[in-house]
Write a structure and sequence with these properties.
Shape: globular
Distance between the termini: 43 Å
Structural class: alpha+beta
Number of strands: 3
Length: 83
């Protein structure tokens, strides 16, 4: 939580640091999956994080995509071309 946004799990600076650390192992064409435990993230917060994440990736790592999910795993998956 942050003092300026009660209930926030990550601030923008933390998201940027996490992306800098993670993107070194996520190659263009792969998908970074960021996991939150059930109940940790409401939809409004999810949407804010997803927007910031998208903007940061466009700025620092074009070709890398990310999603924020509720679940048990954190990993990297290769995206298959659509037929």
């Amino acid at each position: 939580m942050t003092a300026d946004r009660p209930g926030a799990v990550l601030d923008e600076a933390t998201i940027a640091v996490l992306l800098r650390e993670c993107v070194t192992v996520v190659r263009p064409g792969e998908l970074l999956v960021i996991r939150f435990a059930p109940g940790e993230l409401d939809m409004a917060t999810h949407d804010r994080y997803a927007q910031r994440l998208r903007a940061e990736l466009e700025r620092t790592a074009p070709g890398v995509q990310a999603v924020i999910v509720v679940g048990d795993e954190l990993g990297v998956a290769t995206m298959e071309p659509q037929q």
